[in-house]
What does this fold into?
Amino acid sequence: MKIKSLTIYCSSSQKLNKKFYKMARETAEIISNYNIKVIYGGGNIGLMGEIARTLISLNNEVIGIIPKFLIKKEKLNLKLTSLKIVSNMSKRKEKLFKLGDAFLILPGGTGTLEEVVEVLSWKILKLHNKPIIFLNFDNYWSPLIKQFEKIIENKFGNKNLQNQFQVIKNPKELNKILKSWTK
Ligand code: AMP
It folds into this structure.
């Protein structure tokens, strides 16, 4: 499978334990070893900022998608390859979805959750067939993955749900996946 771009969904929080920022930097460093353009929420805060700053420092292509109303709130002093300004959050999600050939989910809050559940639901509905990878660092996403199992067990969703995504435990495991995508 040829993947040329990766959309990353992740936290905008500035108050996380240091280990999460370190994990985000490591993720960006690994991605920069492959020929993959990164698409993300455009901000310079939280894990998003960490990812973007690291990728830029390593000369990786990074495209940010940001809604107008967030531009002022966030310190956008990043030298992104391109910053696309959209009118609202729905337009942002649409662009993040369209521009990525695959999706990587790092730990995050409600914003990240909204994004991942959408791409997952759309995959189940066969609106796309793009890979979805959960980076389950520190078991952060385990309760959600358990909930998916509960959904299947109780027949709120079909067995297919579990085949729609891949789970890795640490950034290093990305190497194997990125290798297979770019070879
Ligand atoms: P959260 O997980 O709640 O921190 O939200 C982060 C995710 O939602 C990112 O993947 C972004 O695409 C989007 N998002 C939500 N809030 C912001 C923000 N203030 N700045 C940039 N992106 C945001």
Summary: The mean pLDDT is 94. Residues 40 and 64 are 5 Å apart (CA to CA). The first strand starts at residue 5 and ends at 9.
